[in-house]
Amino acid sequence: MSLMGPNLFKLGTYNHNAAAYLKEELGKNGFKSVSDKPFFNEFVVKAENPDDFIKNCRSGCLDPGIRIDKWYPELENCWLFCATESDSRSRIDRFISQLQGAV
Length: 103
Hints:
The protein is α+β, with helices and mostly antiparallel strands. The chain has one domain (about 5-100): Aspartate Aminotransferase, domain 1. The protein has helices at about 5-30, 50-60, 90-100, and strands at about 30-35, 40-45, 65, 80. Strands 1-2-4-3 form a 4-stranded antiparallel sheet, with helices on one face. A hairpin with an 8-residue loop joins strand 1 (about 30-35) and strand 2 (about 40-45). Helix 1 runs parallel beside helix 3.
């Protein structure tokens, strides 16, 4: 990290902005936010129709993310999402378009 110098701040800002955009778009497509607390680049959302969500992701060769109710039963049908510098807006948009009607 020390090699990145002042670019570390830019990288962190990009990561957070990508995650905020992903969370906002997921919310527009039927996912419910589990928490309104601040986050960096990971957050948890709930899907009302998890089987459809998984099916639509797999049909588009997309990873449906990490379903966390295996470890946190109180968070049934919830997923952990993350966005980083490798997630461009167009990549996020492609993922979101695959989810249309899947939540």
